[in-house]
């Protein structure tokens, strides 16, 4: 029996419509010696003076094999940039009346479990996935949700990146569908859209038309009432060859005092 690991993340890359990911400043191999030499020139001089050296070595390309140093990249990146896991603290300061878990507080065993893929590729732009939709899909694949399952919502929307529709018109989970899964013991729900709720502009427009605050980030707000996590910006869910019977690993980067963390989720499939 063989085991396959299937990457369920999307690239983390700048986009004009994405305020969460900034431009990347690159220290190339070729620029490295110059930048390093400039940064450590005061230390070289101070060391030479302290030890009475007559000659201060020059830290430049001649100090490294082939004249190149190490690469480095600096990126302005919000915790919601790229594929990431939202912890309860992102939803609000309290969850179920207690201080909400930050990303570093999330138990690791929540992020490893039986995977279930639910397909909603027929959803149109700005549609929401209802509890009835989930029930119908579970019946179609012949599966009953168990506590600890990690549920993956497959809309196929990841294939639209970098088209503006990826950000502006994606479908989303509905509040009743989210509540139903959480009440059945699901702690982690992942989706392959830019956000778990509808696009921000669509929710703001609905609020402007109705004055109803319940249209604003309903699934996120539900995270104050019941403890759960969700993964946004997943990708490649269609590459999983089965709807259930696989394992998901989605361990977040450990960040202190943060409400979310970058994650590279993986489906583990036993052939």
Mean pLDDT score: 96
Note poorly predicted spans. Answer: none
Helix content: 10-25%
State the CATH superfamily name of the largest domain.
Putative cyclase
What characterizes the major β-sheet? 9 strands, mixed
Which strand order do you get reading across the main beta sheet? 1-15-13-7-9-11-12-4-14
Task: Label the overall shape.
Answer: elongated
How many strand units?
15
Spatial gap, N to C terminus: 6 Å
Topology as H/E string? EEHEEHEEEEHEHEHEHHEEEE
Strand residue content:
15-25%
User: Structural class, from secondary structure content?
Assistant: alpha/beta
CATH class of the largest domain: Alpha Beta
Q: What is the CATH topology descriptor of the largest domain?
A: Glucose Oxidase, domain 1
* Radius of gyration over all CA atoms, rounded: 23 Å
The CATH architecture of the largest domain can be given as 3-Layer(bba) Sandwich
The domain tally reads 2
Tally of helical segments: 7
Brief rundown of the structure:
The chain has seven helices and 15 strands. By secondary structure, it is an alpha/beta fold.
Report on the architecture of this protein.
The chain has 271 residues and is an alpha/beta fold. The protein folds into 2 domains: 3-12 and 79-270, Glucose Oxidase, domain 1, CATH 3.50.30.50; 29-70, no CATH class. 24% of the residues lie in helices and 24% in strands. It has helices spanning 32-50, 88-91, 131-141, 165-168, 175-183, 200-210, 218-225; strands spanning 3-7, 21-27, 72-77, 84-86, 94-95, 98-99, 112-119, 128-129, 150-154, 172-173, 188-191, 229-232, 244-249, 260-262, 266-270. The strands form 4 sheets. Strands 1-15-13-7-9-11-12-4-14 form a 9-stranded mixed β-sheet. Helix 3 crosses helix 5 (175-183). The mean pLDDT is 96.
